[in-house]
Specification:
CATH superfamily of the largest domain: P-loop containing nucleotide triphosphate hydrolases
Mean pLDDT: 84
Low-confidence stretches: 137-144
CATH architecture of the largest domain: 3-Layer(aba) Sandwich
Shape: extended
Order of helices and strands: EEHHHEHEHHHEHEHEHHEHEHHHH
Largest sheet: 7 strands, parallel
Strand order of the largest sheet: 5-4-6-3-7-8-9
Oligomer: single chain
Number of helices: 16
Number of strands: 9
Length: about 375
């Protein structure tokens, strides 16, 4: 068997009198590994207020999203910028119809929103879909899946979908949503759809920032009335029984009659408007065009009577009240002495060593002595 050619040799600096036991040898034709190239770092572009404002006004979706990110930030520096940006955007806002949409879990709100949104885009409208979910700061919010649940609508160039602005308080979430509405309107979106998660206090909050409030339910008739809070029924401008297709059609008609009867005995949500129940199927599209016609009729009626504009002005007052409450809440818990005292009192409350009213009185005393505002 022929002997294999030895392609290796010892380097010149090999110590004398050392044989093959010396570990280092050079192999011919083999190059060493290249020096690792430094990783390229990409610095995000910092946009000026003027660039963001111009971007929003020219409907640059990327810059609109960046502006909303600033709106959602809790950084004092970012909030200062937001105030300056909104001051410039506000004159261009207010020209949309704002629609609040709520409903029981499983009612198919997202499917209905997508069906309505696609219809509106086809009619030449520009649609923004926003969500409000006060629980998202704790649970991370299922609403983050909106863009996948509204896959068809998300692909429309004239539609902008933004997941919930999470916040520590309902007031905080409401403030961010209101400011996001302003930015979207300045970006020329003429239909704003605000979806709420679940049924509860957040619905009352959304009512204070929209023109038309829609409650989405599913066939079930009187059984569902027992689970509905009267307060939510009182703020609605229309009820839609969704999933009114196939075998559900008959049940949906019965539910429609029962909800219409219930609404008849309630004080109108909007002056000069009679709230009624309707049926629709987001799956087949049946009833969706009629729903939009209803909203258009509502807008025309309330604008002619002046109710539309007086409500908007009242909502501005409520907006300021929300901001004041949110500011005071944040200022209270940012106070170092309050933070320490609240932690101490919390332990006592959990151990049953102090009653809530006494704990509050103590915190109020500390606040009045050490407040910075």
């Amino acid at each position: 068997m022929p002997k294999e050619e030895n392609n290796s040799y010892k380097p010149d600096w090999t110590p004398e009198n050392h044989g093959d036991e010396f570990a280092i040898r050079i192999v011919k034709g083999v190059t060493g590994t290249e020096e690792p190239k430094p990783k390229r770092t990409f610095k995000r572009k910092e946009y000026t207020n003027s660039e963001l404002i111009e971007g929003v006004l020219h409907n640059n979706r990327n810059l609109l999203a960046k502006t909303i990110t600033f709106i959602e930030s809790t950084s004092p520096a970012h909030q200062k910028r937001v105030s300056e940006i909104l001051a410039e955007l506000s004159p261009y806002a207010g020209k949309s119809i704002r629609i609040g949409i709520s409903g029981v879990p499983g009612a198919g709100k997202s499917t209905l929103i997508e069906a309505l949104g696609v219809l509106l885009v086809e009619k030449g409208h520009k649609v923004a879909v926003l969500t409000i979910d006060p629980s998202s700061s704790r649970s991370k919010g299922s609403i983050l899946g909106d863009k996948t649940r509204m896959e068809k609508l998300a692909k429309e160039p004239n539609c902008f979908i933004r997941p919930s602005a999470s916040g520590g308080t309902l007031g905080g979430v409401a403030r961010k949503t209101r400011e996001t509405i302003t930015a979207c309107e300045a970006a020329q979106y003429d239909v704003i759809l605000v979806e709420t998660v679940g049924v509860g206090q957040s619905e009352i909050t959304v009512r204070s920032m929209v023109d038309f409030f829609l409650l989405v339910l599913i066939p079930g008739g009187g059984d569902e009335l027992q689970g509905m809070k009267k307060g939510v029924m009182e703020i609605t401008d229309a009820i839609v029984i969704n999933k009114a297709d196939g075998e559900n059609k008959k049940i949906a008609r019965i539910a429609k009659a029962e909800y219409s009867a219930a609404l008849h005995y309630m004080y109108p949500s909007t002056e000069g408007w009679v709230s009624k129940a309707y049926t629709a199927s987001a799956l087949t599209g049946e009833g969706v065009p009629e729903l939009w016609e209803l909203i258009e009729k509502f807008e025309k009626t309330t604008k002619e009577s002046g109710v539309f504009y007086s409500r908007r002005r009242s909502q501005n007052v409520e907006w300021v009240e929300f901001m004041i409450r949110d500011f005071l809440y944040d200022s209270f818990f940012r106070n170092e002495k309050i933070s320490v005292e609240f932690k101490r009192l919390k332990e006592k409350l959990l151990n049953g060593e102090v009653i809530p009213s006494a704990a509050f009185d103590r915190l109020k005393e500390v606040w009045l002595k050490n407040r910075s505002v």
